[in-house]
Design a protein that fits this description.
Helix content is 46%, strand content 10%. The chain is built from 17 helices and seven strands. Strands 2-3-1-4-5 form a five-stranded parallel beta sheet, with helices on both faces. A two-stranded parallel sheet has the order 6-7. The protein starts with a strand and ends in a 10-residue tail after the last helix.
Length: 324
């Protein structure tokens, strides 16, 4: 029996760690019956397959999709019984019809990691403020509005879309950040794809996160300094300064308890439908995780900065050097 897995994210649930893990261990995994193919790969993920569906600026590319289908056929014909494709870009694909030939030809399972929505918002905001390509400088509220998060974070909508093509029984929901998912997301997905390999193989695992976020305390400073015309090297230097200035000890958040709860509750109906339709969880796992967490958290006001710290951060960059 063959098993085809398509990991579709979502974002901010360890997707890069999963992709790097399977890419770095692809030879060992292939020798043990799990193929992480090189076809349609960008970096360590299969973003080209997602793009081939016609995502945003990318045009529909049936040649790429047909090459993936041929790769799956050839791999299974050779005796390998398990394949995995991974791209969190799939989260954004509304029209999945280009994948119909794959859905009709193979019994696929769709692995979808989901994260409590208020935590997803904070993590996504952190990334967009931190990344040089975006250097976001607005508020978290304006960020949520700009990125249409009330649609984007509707996990049930995404699952329904995939279930319509691949079938409801194909959907595998993994509630990231809860006790129901292993803390090492690479070990967790391997337990879904090929559980017997978890204990048998000695596999390479990175000792550091693939995407390192900044502490919440650093966000008020970085979002202001993102308005300066810094080049990439200067931006990286600033990130190092902020990591030295603000350690990640203790729990802190960009949303107050009330704001986090209000935002999360907007997705309650969708979350209930998701876990009722596509999992065996009796309740919403995010609720149990939140109730069991008794660690105190500190709210960071994005509008408040210490002027002395701000000047210390700006000092290395004089006007004549900015942007050069």
């Amino acid at each position: 029996m063959t098993s085809l897995f398509i990991h579709i994210g979502t974002h901010k649930t360890g997707s890069t760690a999963i992709q790097d893990f399977f890419f770095e261990n692809r030879e060992t995994l292939a020798n043990n019956g799990v193929v992480y193919p090189s076809v349609a790969m960008q970096g360590s993920a299969h973003h080209k397959l997602a793009w081939a569906c016609g995502h945003r600026k990318h045009k529909l590319d049936m040649k790429c999709i047909d090459s993936v289908r041929s790769c799956i056929e050839n791999t299974f014909s050779s005796g390998t019984d398990t394949m995995l494709f991974s791209s969190e870009v799939f989260e954004y694909i509304d029209d999945l019809s280009p994948l119909r030939k794959i859905a009709e030809a193979f019994d696929a399972r769709i692995i979808m990691y989901v994260r409590r929505q208020d935590e997803y918002l904070e993590s996504s905001y952190n990334q967009h403020v931190r990344m040089y390509e975006t250097r976001y400088s607005g508020s978290i509220d304006s960020f949520a509005e700009k990125h249409n998060v009330f649609r984007r974070f509707d996990y049930n909508r995404i699952a329904d879309n995939w279930a319509e093509l691949f079938g409801a029984a194909s959907i595998v929901i993994r509630p990231y950040g809860t006790p129901f998912v292993k803390s090492d997301v690479t070990e967790d997905i391997l337990s879904v794809v090929k559980p017997e390999l978890c204990a048998e193989l000695s596999l390479k695992r990175r000792k550091y996160p693939s995407n390192v976020s900044l502490s919440a305390e650093a966000m008020p400073y970085l979002r202001r300094l993102n308005r300066l015309p810094l080049n990439r090297d200067q931006h990286q230097q600033l990130l190092h300064q902020l990591r030295d200035m603000f350690s990640r000890t203790g729990a802190s958040r960009l949303l107050s308890d009330g704001e986090a709860t209000d935002f999360y509750e907007k997705f309650r109906t969708s979350n209930e439908q998701l876990f009722r339709s596509y999992s065996s969880f009796p309740n919403i796992p995010f609720d149990a995780h939140n109730e069991s967490s008794d660690a105190p958290t500190r709210w960071v006001d994005l509008e408040q900065v210490d002027s002395r710290r701000l000047m210390d951060l700006v000092a290395p960059f004089n006007d004549s050097d900015m942007g050069r």
